[in-house]
Amino acid sequence: MSMLDKNQATSLPTERLIEHFKLYYRNLLQPSNVRIDNIYADNMIFKDPVHEVTGLDQFSSYLDRLCDNLIDCRFEYLDELVGDGIAYIKWNMHYHHPKISSEPITLRGITHLHFDTHITYHEDVFDMGAMLYEHLTVIGPVTRFIKQKMGKS
């Protein structure tokens, strides 16, 4: 086996794990052929600007609650950086939640992953204002005004 063949053989599990991760979230409301327990470790940790969840069972429940009122939720992957046991994936999330907005919303974010054979740590980083606050009837105009003023400084 040549050196190139060895490198390709060792990188395949990582590539497959990242591809399965992206396939699972590509269209969150439509079941994929990828099972969540094939992607995540049982003792995984998930964080985003609002939640912190430990364990695959709690994370599965979190995803179920997240999807309850969504009409659409799909991810468009823009860029990724994958190293030995770590990955950063930049994305646009396109979603429609009628309690937030009558129109679909696009949110830009980054996912930070740690993994070995399964993902052990998953952190989503995004702007809560762009996801939620800007679209709410009462505080939306105030949030947009503040962001606009800050941009002009």
TrEMBL record:
Q: List the taxonomic lineage.
A: Bacteria, Pseudomonadati, Pseudomonadota, Gammaproteobacteria, Cellvibrionales
- The residues covered by the SnoaL-like domain are 35-116
A Pfam family cross-referenced in the UniProt record is SnoaL_2
Q: Any idea what this protein is called?
A: SnoaL-like domain-containing protein
**Native organism:** BD1-7 clade bacterium
Q: Which InterPro entries match?
A: NTF2-like_dom_sf (IPR032710), SnoaL-like (IPR037401)
